[in-house]
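Teaching assistant here, posting this on the class forum so everyone can see the example we discussed in section. The complex has two components, and the goal was to see what a joint structure prediction looks like when all of them are supplied at once.
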Amino acid sequence: KQEVTQIPAALSVPEGENLVLNCSFTDSAIYNLQWFRQDPGKGLTSLLLIQSSQREQTSGRLNASLDKSSGRSTLYIAASQPGDSATYLCAVISLDSNYQLIWGAGTKLIIKP
Amino acid sequence: DTGVSQDPRHKITKRGQNVTFRCDPISEHNRLYWYRQTLGQGPEFLTYFQNEAQLEKSRLLSDRFSAERPKGSFSTLEIQRTEQGDSAMYLCASSSLRTDGIYEQYFGPGTRLTVT
């Protein structure tokens, strides 16, 4: 059974720093992996989707990498801003999950001005 | 059509009452999903539809929960005889098959349910 873990659960960094969020999954047989952002009390915004055949995806200051063999993904945020403060969740679609997203619990990120 | 919408955004109800939530997906999307999220956790899958057919239900979806998508467009999620443990954010998402073979899910703002 696929399990997704995100460590740390919370992270606080000063504005302007580059940072990395981690996501690990137990079964490498995945279709794709997505990173989402969630603001307090709000829904989920998709940031990046990496297909199983890809190694990374970039959007603006965000870069997500995928290493299927080791069951890991990272989300790199460059030049962090207070507006980046949110919870970041990763989710995978496994080959045996019938297109269901299987989620980590998220990393709560606080960017201090 | 600017995205997935959900109604209501917030619902407070007393234990034992029935509640119904609505989700309107992105119009051309044929798949619709319901998730439940409690504080500090990732979403948990409840059920999904392809067009009007309900293809899968989680064991989390007890007999008090029912979902419909009668015309393959909007969907409703009903919870009967609500319990305090039902308090959560209920999220809806929709997707369709991209040209690269990927179903990318787009989420609505959620309905926050509080059972008192």
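For the discussion questions: The longest strand of chain B covers residues 88-95. The CA atoms of residues 35 and 45 of chain B lie 5 Å apart. Think about how each of these relates to the inputs above.
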